[in-house]
Write a structure and sequence with these properties.
Keywords: Hydrolase, Nucleotide biosynthesis. It is an enzyme of class 3 (hydrolase). The protein has about 350 residues and is α/β, with parallel strands linked by helices. It is built from 12 helices and 10 strands. Strand 9, helix 12 (about 325-335) and strand 10 (about 335-340) form a beta-alpha-beta unit.
Length: about 350
């Protein structure tokens, strides 16, 4: 498995990478600072120096991917994915997942201040931090925060604090405020919000306690192979969710997939019968009369009866509704297996 981690400044990306390394044996990979894909001085997240040293550093994302492909049975993680193109390259492989790490603004600011103090650098004001992270997330016009080299964006594996402090001193514009750096490579990077929206999994780092972060990461069941390749149930449920988007029911959109021996026979969704007025055009009296939830649902038994009548042997559902008990009784009497789908943490809209 190969996991790429994205997130805003000081969200805790490297802490997550470190936890993956400690608890699951993931190897941290990185890109050289001048690779174009790796962290550059236009990104205020470069102050995140607390992460572990990459075990291997590459010149390009393609070289990194080639290495992982040759060792695809092992686990790898990288925080150096900052472009849509880079993510697209990594997604060519079936063993790649993109994980986003998010954290509240004030918590991220406090972490940034703490790290500036650790480096004996003058921290930015809250307003400066907000402006800089807005630039990072949305490319709004604002200066960037000072550049600090980190273990993940330098070709050197040195852990010498003096070198880091010297780098900080070199960025100072005045005794009171560091110099704000601009880099012409900004056009190579993507707004962070775009990368966050592309993620397969997400985690909220809203505590200063690493134990809390670990429990949140553990709850993702990150090494579950179904996250890479969905189970048959998950695959068919994705199709049912997609079919539901065609529904125009004013109460609740529902989709279904009819399967025989793991082959899709048909898909469908709820609504008014063929050639009748659609529900959202007034065709369903129950929906358009604002009937209270739970009333007039006896018609839903028609679906259960039809399912029994056509010889369906098993029904897998995602969410419950008001007629569960009566429907379950119909299926039980007819010998139809009924069970709820156990979902994974992966987003249902990641169908690629």
């Amino acid at each position: 498995m190969f996991i790429g981690i994205v997130g805003p400044t000081c969200s805790g990306k490297h802490e997550v990478a470190n936890l993956l390394s400690i608890h699951y044996g993931f190897q941290l990979l990185g890109l050289r600072r001048d690779s174009g894909e790796g962290t550059t001085s236009t990104r205020s997240e470069s102050i995140e120096l607390t992460g572990p040293h990459p075990q291997k550093v590459f010149d390009t994302i393609e070289q990194m991917l080639d290495y992982v492909t040759l060792h695809w049975m092992d686990h790898f993680v990288t925080c150096d994915v900052h472009t849509v193109q880079g993510i697209s390259i990594l997604r060519k492989r079936p063993f790649f997942l993109l994980l986003s790490v998010e954290s509240p603004m004030m918590m991220r600011y406090r972490r940034y201040v703490d790290r500036c103090n650790f480096l004996e650098a003058v921290p930015p004001t809250l307003e400066e931090f907000v402006e800089s992270t807005d630039l990072d997330l949305y490319w709004t016009p604002a200066p960037t925060l000072p550049y600090f080299p980190t273990a993940s964006n330098t070709s050197s594996q040195s852990d010498d604090l003096d070198d880091i402090v010297n780098a900080v001193d070199s960025t100072r514009g005045s005794p009171d405020r560091p110099h704000l750096v601009h880099n012409d490579n900004s056009q190579l990077l993507a707004p962070a919000y775009r990368l966050l929206s592309m993620s397969d999994l997400s985690i909220l780092n809203h505590s200063s306690d690493l134990g809390t972060l670990w429990h949140a990461l553990e709850s993702l069941d990150i090494t579950n192979p179904n996250l890479l390749r969905p189970s048959w149930d998950s695959y068919f449920m994705y199709l049912a969710n997609l079919a539901a988007r065609r529904s125009n029911c004013m109460k609740r959109r529902v989709g279904c997939v009819l399967v025989r021996e793991k082959r899709v026979i048909a898909t469908g969704y709820n609504g008014t019968p063929k050639n009748l007025t659609n529900c959202n055009d007034g065709g369903c009296s129950r929906c358009n009369a604002a009937t209270p939830c739970g009333e007039g649902l006896d018609r839903c038994l028609w679906c259960a009866i039809k399912i029994v009548q056509v010889g369906v042997s098993e029904v897998v559902y995602s969410e419950s509704y008001g007629m569960d008990d009566l429907t379950a009784e119909v299926f039980r009497n007819a010998g139809v297996v009924l069970r709820q789908h156990a979902t994974t943490g992966i987003k249902l809209d990641q169908l690629s």
